[in-house]
Amino acid sequence: MHPSPVASFVSSGGAAVDVPLTGSPDAEAIFREYAPYVHRVLRHLGVASEDIDDVMQDVFIVVHRKVADFEPRGSLRAWVHGIAIRVTSRHRRRRSRVRETAKGDALDAIDPRTPAETLDAQDARRILAGILDQLDDDKRAVFVLYELEELSMQEVAEAAEIPLQTAYSRLRAARELVYEAVRRHQARENFR
């Protein structure tokens, strides 16, 4: 584990573990194991809450289409994350060109937390999302996968399809930006 000042804002909770492979991976088993994890990763990668289900569906359509081509030389988790990163990137480019407005009322799930806990968690997510929005997509992906989703740096490099040293370089640059944003936020809070 590696401590992070971001942990005071959001806890990643329940990180998916790599599925041990016996034979070829099954798209349905991958979905069952990774769907909640991919949902969280998409949120951290900046997918709007109203688009997460659609983007997640796109991720698992690609997984289903390409599962037969998966080569177990790397980790299944990194492979799924790589797909999620690429689908998210396409979605964000498409989303910036076309803005949709959702109609209708969405039903909210019942939250067992107290109203104060809910507000604190919502505030923390809002602050973290604002900080992550300051990063470019490449740095954000590396930071999210390593710091929030706790993938190994080798898995991050595989998922992002970049050399290991490039992943380390992007993480260092992202950390500097995130830590500075956290310091600015804390200074503003302490000033109030």
From TrEMBL:
<dbReference type="InterPro" id="IPR039425">
    <property type="entry name" value="RNA_pol_sigma-70-like"/>
</dbReference>
<dbReference type="GO" id="GO:0016987">
    <property type="term" value="F:sigma factor activity"/>
</dbReference>
<dbReference type="InterPro" id="IPR036388">
    <property type="entry name" value="WH-like_DNA-bd_sf"/>
</dbReference>
<protein>
    <submittedName>
        <fullName>RNA polymerase sigma factor RpoE</fullName>
    </submittedName>
</protein>
<dbReference type="InterPro" id="IPR013325">
    <property type="entry name" value="RNA_pol_sigma_r2"/>
</dbReference>
<dbReference type="GO" id="GO:0003677">
    <property type="term" value="F:DNA binding"/>
</dbReference>
<dbReference type="Pfam" id="PF08281">
    <property type="entry name" value="Sigma70_r4_2"/>
</dbReference>
<dbReference type="InterPro" id="IPR014284">
    <property type="entry name" value="RNA_pol_sigma-70_dom"/>
</dbReference>
<keyword id="KW-0804">Transcription</keyword>
<keyword id="KW-0805">Transcription regulation</keyword>
<feature type="domain" description="RNA polymerase sigma-70 region 2">
    <location>
        <begin position="30"/>
        <end position="97"/>
    </location>
</feature>
<comment type="similarity">
    <text>Belongs to the sigma-70 factor family. ECF subfamily.</text>
</comment>
<dbReference type="InterPro" id="IPR007627">
    <property type="entry name" value="RNA_pol_sigma70_r2"/>
</dbReference>
<feature type="domain" description="RNA polymerase sigma factor 70 region 4 type 2">
    <location>
        <begin position="126"/>
        <end position="176"/>
    </location>
</feature>
<dbReference type="InterPro" id="IPR013249">
    <property type="entry name" value="RNA_pol_sigma70_r4_t2"/>
</dbReference>
<keyword id="KW-0238">DNA-binding</keyword>
<dbReference type="GO" id="GO:0006352">
    <property type="term" value="P:DNA-templated transcription initiation"/>
</dbReference>
<dbReference type="InterPro" id="IPR013324">
    <property type="entry name" value="RNA_pol_sigma_r3/r4-like"/>
</dbReference>
<keyword id="KW-0731">Sigma factor</keyword>
<dbReference type="Pfam" id="PF04542">
    <property type="entry name" value="Sigma70_r2"/>
</dbReference>
